[in-house]
Amino acid sequence: MTARVPAAADAARATRAEVCVVACAEVWRGDGEVLAATAGTVPALGARLARLTFSPRLLLTDGEAMLLSTPVGAPEDPAPAEGWLPYRKHLSLAARGKRHMMMGASQLDRYGNQNISCIGDWARPRRQLLGARGAPSNTVNHPVSYWVPRHSPRVFVPRVDTVSGVGYDRAAEAGPAAARFHELRRVVTDLAVFDFATPDHRMRLASVHPGVSVAQVCEQTGFEPAVPDQVPVTREPTGEELRLLREVLDPHGNRDREVRT
Amino acid sequence: MDKSLSLAGFAARIESGMTVGIGGWGARRKPMALVRALLRTDVADLTVVSCGGPDVGLLAAAGRISKLVAPFVTLDSVPLEPHFRAAREAGALEFEEWDESMFLWGLTAAAHRLPFMPVRAGIGSDIPRHNPRLRTVTSPYQDGEELLAAPALTLDVTLVHLNRADVRGNGQSLGPDPFFDDLFTEAAEHTYLSCERVVDHFTGPPQSLLVQRQNVTGVLHTPRGAHFTACAPDYGRDEAFQRAYLRAAQDPDAWRRFEEHFLAGDEHAYQRAVDGFAQREATV
């Protein structure tokens, strides 16, 4: 180890937001030359961290039309661009499957159905949100993960009010065209990490963040997730990951605005 | 061959009940001067087809939209559009919610004069459940996949704003993203193209010559005509103004004052009021 500060000492001081960034980065571990697309600050930092460490072949965008040749540097500097990915080509890339996106979710249910469209009756919503955006196509074309910065029973509901992103039960019901490329990888929240590694793809508690109890997670989840006998603790960031995050990727601490400590 | 048109001349050609495509994306390169020109008329009952931003917001706030076809409505730096939200929550407009890929292929179908294009997008989601006109189509080949048939988004008129244009109706996009603007013009019977600058000759890479004159009916010179949305590289989004728009939208009285201050006069008056706003912001 060449880290200036011993990894153990640094890890002890990792904030919840930093644990979340690393848990987000982990969703892209093992992904090859695919676009790591994100919505939100913590997933964007996670994708950049993964690219700088264990998933170096990932593609990243500047959030508009350019592919970044390095995840570091001023956005107005044209030098870091390695490619052009305007909206239309971005949709082709997604349809081709060369993408793993971490989306947000206003609601999620136990099979991973996601809603970002509206709350209440769709015909006359109590609260109109964004609209479906690309959630229907993303979920039937390539791996999708979700990021929930405030884990609560308002987000984790027994049934979503409307299905924007397709969950496992709905993909199976809709047939081969929906299920062929459907894969929900993980759900990362400010409290825990879930996956869908159960026989019927129900959401399963994969780990709880340091300092969080399984009971606390279940209390904040509006359905019963699968809970293994032994729930691991989400891994601590390494010293090098903390250095990259604090000194290179997010020196102004934008991560703390999205996750309460 | 001079297709130059005034804003009033353009607005007179738009009739109530038309299906109107609006280019740009969210709060990026929206033909806002053309939208403001429509607000000065009494045109109503429009079906608007848009990757929605404040274009949808302004038309919805003025009660001009009877039906909206869109995959989202957003202000980008602020995720939710306040007037669109209010209209939906009040049941003031009919909403056809599309997925982004469906939207791309619906425009493409119209541009190619095809009735539909097959897409994977939408299958399994609630998009087809909320929209009874959507149908699936089964592949005649060995795979036999059942896909969604995105219907052609055929448009009566399209409004787009580009960086440069000539009077013949050729349009140039100098920013990083053309969005769907060329597709919109190909899906429409008539296109009205506004631009930052009218030029005699284009300079820049040939790939930037996005819109072609055979698809354009009228050309409008509207400097800062995308304001307050971004129009790279000519200018960025006016975030301070967008915040003021957002604040005003929270309350009916504040919105009436906003309309009186910014939207009661012609485009020249709007731009003068925006300059005044910027000066006040700078001195605060």
Helix-strand pattern of chain B, N to C? HEHEHEHEHEHEEEEHEEEHHH
- The assigned CATH architecture of chain A is 3-Layer(aba) Sandwich
As a percent range, the share of helical residues of chain B equals: 25-40%
Helix content of chain A: 25-40%
Widest sheet: strand ordering of chain A: 1-4-9-10-11-12
- Give the count of helical stretches of chain A: 10
CATH superfamily of chain A: Glutaconate Coenzyme A-transferase
Q: Quick one: how many beta strands of chain B? A: 12
Mean pLDDT of chain B: 98
Give the biggest sheet of chain A.
6 strands, mixed
The average pLDDT value of chain A, as a whole number, equals 93
The CATH topology assignment of chain A is Glutaconate Coenzyme A-transferase
Largest β-sheet summary of chain B? 9 strands, mixed
Please identify the oligomeric state: heterodimer
Task: Describe the protein's architecture and organization.
The complex is a heterodimer of chains A (261) and B (284). By secondary structure, chain A is of the alpha/beta class. In chain A, 30% of the residues lie in helices and 17% in strands. Chain A is built from ten helices and twelve strands. A six-stranded mixed beta sheet of chain A has the order 1-4-9-10-11-12, sandwiched between helices. Chain A is globular and about 45 Å long. By secondary structure, chain B is α/β, with parallel strands linked by helices. Chain B contains ten helices and twelve strands. In chain B, the strands form two sheets. In chain B, strands 1, 2, 3, 4, 8, 9, 10, 11 and 12 form a nine-stranded mixed beta sheet that branches. In chain B, strands 5-7-6 form a three-stranded antiparallel beta sheet. Chain B is globular, with a radius of gyration of 19 Å. The chains are: A alpha/beta (261), B alpha/beta (284). At the A-B interface, helix 4, strand 8, helix 5, helix 6 and helix 7 of A face helix 4 and helix 5 of B.
